[in-house]
Amino acid sequence: MTYELAIWPILIILGSALLMILLFVFLLRNSDTVIDVLKLDKGFDDDRIEFGNLGSLEIVKIALIFIGGFMILDPLPEFLHYCYLGFKKEISATGLSPFEAPGLSEFWDYFRWFVSGVNLLVGYLILSNLGRLASFLVNLKAKQE
């Protein structure tokens, strides 16, 4: 089996990667100019951020928001990709193309699909029950002390 490689997709990928690297370097070296042009420093009198008014419950809530958000954002593309491949495999008359077939052919692929779905579910449950979970964790810590 042979595959034909077109030059345009390779050039587009390399060009996009080069553009992202150049944008990153530009923003890194000229961050003061970007702040001045976008007026991002307006309304800030002090360079410090005060966390003194936050209690333990608010800190636990912020941590749970980060954990739940990462549990949703990280496996979401993989889960959607596996859903697409599974749907195409079941519905399409021709099945999966030779490039897509290795993506959903072994037990390990179905296991990763399941794990990414469980991560999405747990992340959603963390975010939807944020208050109860945070108060439970704070009370659990208080009982241990």
Care to describe what's here?
The chain has 145 residues and is mostly helical. The chain has helices at 7-29, 31-38, 56-73, 76-91, 107-128, 130-144. Helix 3 runs antiparallel to helix 5, helix 3 (56-73) crosses helix 6 and helix 4 (76-91) crosses helix 5. The mean pLDDT is 83.
Strand segment tally: 0
Please give the alpha-carbon distance between the first and last residues: 66 Å
Helix/strand class: mainly alpha
Biggest sheet architecture: none
On the 0 to 100 scale, the average pLDDT is 83
What coarse outline follows from CA principal-axis ratios? flat
Q: Helix amount, in percent? A: over 70%
Beta-strand share of residues: under 5%
**Low-pLDDT windows of residues:** none
Total of helices: 6
State Rg: 24 Å
Descriptors for this entry?
flat, mainly alpha, 0% strand, single chain, 70% helix, 6 helices, 145 residues
